[in-house]
C-alpha cells in the first residue's frame, strides 16, 4: 500500500488538493494500492475558498514508495505567505533523502524551496510566482511555460489545475500510460503533456476525445496490444459495426484506424525494448509480430506516421 500525503497550509487552494487527490483515489478504485492522508501543523486548516479542512497533525513515517504532495495556497507573494515549520521541512528532506518522491502544486514549490529540495533542480510554479521563486531560491532552475517538471524525485507543477497533470504523470511513471489514460478518461480530463516535450505514449496522445465507444476499444487494445485483435472482435466490444467503428475511431483519434493504433503501441514498446538491449528480432516477438520484417517496415515510416498520424485517409479495409 502506497501512502499519498497532502501537506495543508493555511489558505490552501481546494483544487490544488482535490485534483491530485481525485487522480490517486480513482487509481485506487481501479485496484492500485493507494491510501490518501492529509496532514497539517494544526488540525483545522482554512482554505482559500472558505471551506475549512480537517487534517491529522504530526508527520507520519513513510517508505520510499510513498509520496508527499504540497498543494499551493493563496498569497500575493511567496515571502508573505504561510510557511512550513522546521519540523515539516526536515520531514520533507528526510523523505526525499531515503528515496521518496516529493511534489508540489503552484505556490507549494516555496515549501520545497525552503526545505532545500529545489537547489540544483528544475522546477516550476504558477506564472505569477516564477520570478519571485527564482529570486528567493537562486540555486533553483526555474522553468517557465511548462505544466510540470520532474527532477530527481522532486516534481513541481504550475498553477491550480496542473496538479491533475502532475498526478497523471506520476501514475504513468509508476504504472504505465494505460492506467494514466484510464484514470484521465474516468475523470473526463485530457492527460496533457508539456508543450515542448513529445507525448510519452500513444495511449495518452490519442485520448483527448469524448467518444465512449472508441475509449472502450482503446481500453481493450491498450491492455492486449501484443495479441491479434480482429476488427470484428473490437467492434463487438464497442457494440457497433466494423464500418462504424472504423469511422468513429478515425474521427476521434485524428486519423487512425484500430489497427494503426495497435501497431503504434507495438512499435513504441519495441523501441523501448531495443533501447534497453533487446535485438530487433526479440523485440518484434515480444510485442506480437511473427517476425522482425513488419517491425522493421513500421520503424522506417516518416516521423509523422511513427507518431500515429497517417499520411492518407484510411478505408475500412485498413482494419
From TrEMBL:
Keywords, alphabetical: Transcription, Transcription regulation
SUPFAM superfamilies reported in the protein's UniProt record: Class I glutamine amidotransferase-like, Homeodomain-like
Entries under Gene3D superfamilies matching the protein: 3.40.50.880, Homeodomain-like
InterPro entries: Class_I_gatase-like, DJ-1/PfpI, Homeodomain-like_sf, HTH_AraC, INH-QAR
Organism placement in taxonomy: Bacteria, Bacillati, Actinomycetota, Actinomycetes, Kitasatosporales
Protein name: Helix-turn-helix domain-containing protein
Keyword Transcription regulation among UniProt keywords: yes
Boundaries of every HTH araC/xylS-type domain copy: 215-297
Pfam families linked: DJ-1_PfpI, HTH_18
Skewed-composition ranges (Basic and acidic residues): 302-312
Ranges in a coiled coil: none
UniProt region (Disordered), positions on chain: 297-319
A molecular-function term among this protein's GO annotations: sequence-specific DNA binding
Superkingdom assignment: Bacteria
